[in-house]
Fold this protein.
Amino acid sequence: MASVIKKAILKAIRYYQKTGGSQKHFAISCNFTPTCSHYTYQAIERFGVMSGSKLGIKRIRRCNERDCVHIKNDPVPISINKCS
């Protein structure tokens, strides 16, 4: 069951990306590389739906500079610190 949910979420993220991502849906550009949607996709692939989604949400909450001049490199971590 978990893999069905994971596949559905990843498919939804890909659909969001293919239909224009943040530029089309929110009229903004991502402040990070990889983009927030790519980061969330990778985090869910690596850590599963719950932990990956938490990482993705934390990343999106940091993405608040509407007209950011410098793109920040912020890759998905290799492991998750379970204490935080």
